[in-house]
């Protein structure tokens, strides 16, 4: 399950597998906020001209149908953003609802149409999972800022514009690694502090997609409810972020264990 199978797409005018894989890398398991490529869910990428088929397997057969549905929909939509893809077909394997999900996603049905007995759609579920992912990513971003030496009073006043990379404050790399850092000006521009870019960029992406920030002068960090943070409640909000991060990491560890156990069973069955 960990190594996508090769395809014979050579000679077609469709995308190469690397381009498809790059798009799939943007799809996350909504419960874990981690890429389905990183999690090794993707079994196969098959290219036939401008048609792409993606086969994927989740850690267990009883993973939430709503979560599986969201990953399948997101995978289809991401692959179809490629200019040379006319149609993306998504196949879920080894899942208790693989038939309903594969049929529903590829026939462009809604979740309610694919699961007529379900209580409601997945939109509300997605909103709540995105909120938890934003809180966890905010925890990582604030940890990076604290480690760089910024204090709570400065952090709660940062705006989206403070993460810009103007030409006069170009991104830099530390001497001990090649990781990009964002130079953040503090103390009235008198001091510039380089902060690792990855956690800040990941947080900003989720903050934008969840709608808590939109303009450059919006305050960057928010409470779980989406409000600006006052300095007096900084520690409480940050602890709530840590709790979200720990819960997500713990669930990720469980899923990793289930996936590894499942792979071992498949390998042992193949040896019989």
TrEMBL record:
Residues 17-87 form the MIP18 family-like domain. InterPro entries: FSCA_dom_sf, MIP18-like. Residues 1-25 are annotated as: Disordered. It comes from the Archaea. SUPFAM superfamilies: Fe-S cluster assembly (FSCA) domain-like. It holds the Pfam family FeS_assembly_P. Gene3D superfamilies: Fe-S cluster assembly (FSCA). Residues 14-25 have a biased composition (Basic and acidic residues). This is Iron-sulfur cluster assembly protein. It comes from Halosolutus amylolyticus. The lineage of its organism: Archaea, Methanobacteriati, Methanobacteriota, Stenosarchaea group, Halobacteria.
């Amino acid at each position: 399950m960990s190594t996508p199978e090769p395809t014979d797409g050579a000679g077609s005018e469709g995308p190469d597998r690397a381009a498809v894989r790059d798009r799939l890398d943007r799809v996350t398991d909504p419960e874990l906020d981690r890429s389905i490529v990183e999690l090794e869910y993707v079994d196969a990428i098959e290219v036939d001209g401008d048609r792409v088929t993606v086969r994927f397997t989740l850690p267990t057969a009883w993973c939430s149908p709503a979560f599986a549905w969201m990953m399948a929909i997101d995978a289809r939509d991401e692959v179809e953003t490629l200019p040379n893809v006319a149609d993306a077909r998504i196949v879920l394997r080894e899942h208790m609802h693989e038939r309903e999900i594969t049929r529903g996603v590829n026939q462009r049905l809604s979740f309610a149409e694919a699961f007529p007995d379900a209580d409601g759609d997945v939109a509300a579920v997605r909103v709540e999972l995105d909120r938890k992912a934003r809180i966890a990513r905010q925890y990582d971003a604030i940890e990076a800022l604290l480690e760089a030496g910024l204090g709570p009073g400065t952090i709660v006043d940062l705006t989206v514009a403070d993460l810009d990379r103007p030409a006069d404050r170009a991104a830099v790399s530390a001497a001990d690694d090649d990781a990009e850092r964002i130079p953040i000006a503090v103390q009235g521009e008198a001091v510039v502090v380089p902060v690792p870019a990855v956690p800040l960029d990941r947080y900003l992406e989720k903050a934008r997609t969840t709608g808590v920030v939109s303009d450059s002068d919006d305050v960057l960090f928010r409470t779980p409810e989406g409000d600006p943070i006052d300095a007096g409640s900084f520690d409480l909000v940050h602890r709530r972020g840590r709790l979200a991060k720990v819960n997500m990491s713990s669930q990720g560890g469980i899923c990793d264990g289930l996936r590894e156990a499942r792979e071992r069973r498949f390998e042992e069955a193949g040896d019989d």
